[in-house]
Amino acid sequence: MKNLKIAGVPEHFNLPWRLSIENGAFVKEGIALEWTDVPEGTGRLCQMLRNGETDIAVILTEGIVKDIVAGNPSKIAQIYVQSPLIWGIHVAAKSPFETVDDLENKIVAISRYGSGSHLMAFVNAQNEGWDTANLRFEVINTLDGAVESLTEGTSDYFMWERFMTKPIVDRGIFRRVGDCPTPWPSFVIAVRNEVLENDPEAIKKVLDLINAQTAMFKQIPGIDNLLAERYGQKPEDINEWLNLTRWSQTKPDKTTFDKIQEQLLDLSIINNTIPFESLAT
Asked: Could you tell me the residue range of the domain that residue 63 belongs to?
């Protein structure tokens, strides 16, 4: 039995992994795959890959590209979710801010530096024509930390996946004042280089199995109700999310990822680009 560690955010995008592990799909192929939920998100997942705390990460595209360019000894093995991630832009329910325009030069709550919530603040600022040099940040670590920070006023707005944040909006804690979709595929599967070199067959089996699961995921009977129950969502919100979400079973391609690096360079998120072969398998 080959032991492998995998980590990702505890969100609905990753239910295909959880179901495959629960159903014993990996064990049948001789792989003991241990999943770790990482509510802190992309910045923490990058750190786990660097430290060898995980072998595989299901991770936001912009975050892992930035970290590989900065020296993370990992590569992108596959695109996991092709569709953009829709980041909701949230303020406290009693905040005086009514529109995205009101948030220029205000303090952004982020899970940590290098996280999606950090990097997407630059994308949103560029979309709005703001000077990204004026962005200010408050590190809040988790979604619970964001609730505390916005409610207490130590930060002014918070960007997080729209559907996972909607229950907080529904409870009257946050208001959503806008959306900011990623201009690239939302999630990729990254693997430490050491694991890619030493266990290529095991990684191929893992990818083949998860691809089989995601290819038929939407056709699982009652999947909308299961998602709603597990992730505290309303069925109508889950169905909207399912309609918008497209999983991928494809390898990264040079054209797409060269363009992503150019976009991140233009946003000053990275200071240089690297060859595609250093970024992806």
From this structure: 2-84+185-279
